[in-house]
Amino acid sequence: MAPNTPPAVEELPRPPFHYHLVLVEPEIPPNTGNIGRLCVAIQGTLHLVHPLGFDISDKAVRRAGLDYWKFVDLIEHQSFEAFLQWFEEHEPGAPYFLLSKKAQKSIYSLKLPARAAFVFGKETLGLPEALLEKHAERSFTIPMFSSRIRSLNLSNAVSLTVYEAIRQHL
Fold it and tell me: Which domain holds residue 98?
């Protein structure tokens, strides 16, 4: 092998599930970067709903050292409604779930399907109240057992949620 030649990458088979991770108006680049890396690891799709609180141009992600970003299956949407339209067209019959600390039902109470979308809000405010009210039957929380914190880190919450779904299918 010549110097500076990267090793061959072994392509793994597609897993028996496919998840869409949806970030509505994300604000913190490292969280989105971590979630993008997670999407590559699980062969999932990352959806970013505008407006974004940062730049994701090629130059910006290169500067941030996101050398895996080119492998992220990324789709951008101008609104949550535009995402829903895309999702219903491309994943007919697959459910979507909204995750929020404001929801009452635990995500762990569900039998999660092998194809679904998990929707998360921006780091500072979460998902808008109106959206949670409109989709109340699809709104869930990750249980927390202390009132000393306001919420979990976004990339941690996404990981906990998607790996619970994966655990149910392995």
Answer: 38-143+150-167
